[in-house]
Amino acid sequence: MSAESTGSRGFTYWRLRFHAWRGTRPFWAGLFTLLGGLPIAYFPYAQLHLGNLTLAMSTTAGAGSLIIGVLLVTLGLTMWFHSIVRVFAGVAAILLALVSIPVSNIGGFLLGFLLALLGGALSISWAPGRPPARPVVGRDTPRRAPEPDDGDPFLPAPREGESPNVTDTTAHANGGRKSAG
């Protein structure tokens, strides 16, 4: 290592890199969708032990629950790494969350259902930000007022001492003059 090197890249560098990466995609939508798929896929195969009592949650739709859970995890990762299909992934996540209610123990005991529903809604509503406008270099001169043209032949010409910028968009259509009845 030379004296000029900063050494290894510390925690702050990676945190800032992650923050920049997270800001260019629907991160929270993907995270909620991914987390919503886990209980939906897990609970039909889980066995809870309460002392000597074993409670099995397995149902006849265990394979359907596993498929829904894996698809939700895949959609969550898709939202992160292919944000261009975020609307499709969000709609698919909402539909899978709704299908998980009758198929998978009330959508993973409502935990997976609510997380997948929230993730899908966030994915649909997310829009990429616009980059900040760059300042234009070299525009230090002020803009001049536009040159008056010959005007419309159907509008009256301005009187002496009257501004030539009076148009028909002013209070009266006759150039802003009051007409003497």
Question: How would you describe the overall organization of this protein?
Answer:
The chain has 181 residues and is mainly alpha-helical. The chain contains 6 helices and 2 strands. Strands 1-2 form a two-stranded antiparallel ribbon. A hairpin with a 2-residue loop joins strand 1 (47-50) and strand 2. Helix 2 runs antiparallel to helix 3 (62-81), helix 2 (27-42) runs parallel beside helix 4 and helix 3 runs antiparallel to helix 4. It is elongated.
Summarize the structure.
The chain is mainly alpha-helical and 181 residues long. It has helices at 11-22, 27-42, 62-81, 86-103, 105-109, 111-125, and strands at 47-50, 53-56. 48% of the residues lie in helices and 4% in strands.
Strand composition percent: under 5%
End-to-end separation in angstroms reads 92 Å
Order of helices and strands: HHEEHHHH
Quickly count the helices: 6
Instruction: Name the assembly state.
Output: single chain
Q: What is the topology, as strand order, of the major beta sheet?
A: 1-2
Structural class: mainly alpha
Rg computed from alpha carbons, rounded to a whole number of angstroms: 32 Å
Total beta-strand segments: 2
Largest sheet: 2 strands, antiparallel
Average pLDDT value?
Answer: 80
- Coarse morphology: elongated
Give the helix level as a range of percent: 40-55%
